[in-house]
Fold this sequence. Notes:
Elements: E1 2-8, E2 11-17, E3 19-22, E4 25-28, E5 37-39, E6 45-49, H1 52-59, H2 75-90, E7 98-99, E8 102-103, E9 110-115, E10 118-122, E11 128-131, E12 134-138, H3 143-152, H4 158-172, E13 180-184, E14 190-192
Helix pairs in contact: 3-4
Amino acid sequence: xxxxxxxxxxxxYLAADAIKECCDxxxxxxxxxxxxxxxxxxxxxxxxxxxxxxTQRLWLHDEWFELEDGETFDKKFIVTKIIPxxxxxxxxxxxxxxxxxRFFNQTQVGFIIAKDADIYMVFSNLSVIKCDKIAAMSNEDxxxxxxxYANACREDNPEKVIKQTYAFTAGKNANISTHGFIINTKDxxxxxxxxxx
Length: 197
């Protein structure tokens, strides 16, 4: 599966496909409650890529995303307030990969976190970067396919860019679905990708 974000005119459109995996079978779920895309009470939107065992720990803690007086949604907020708490919540889940006789601190998950016109990516080693207008993450190594296509796409409508990007990537990678939802940071409405005209 994959998550994707694009900013247009000060609004971020954040998307996640609806593919689910059970053993060796892939199936599709078009229900908001079953997606990797969540709106927190503070208005911050989070999309996740990776095992639900790990990502669900984030959805259990709306309070992590509350902006207190004087706080702003920025990299410092994510690094100092969300990442340490998330690490504490998952460190006993035995999800850290061991490679080449040493630990790389890979959780096998990634997040895109957005609010208003700002997009941040949290990588599997829990590092954080701010993105410029576009972001893509996938546990199937489709990130660059999505980014390259979206950058080359001449469509001006961000929802159509998302739909076309997922459709193109699904043609290259069977684990990416053209079924999914899009949510924006202005009105917080969910829209099915297949309903985009």
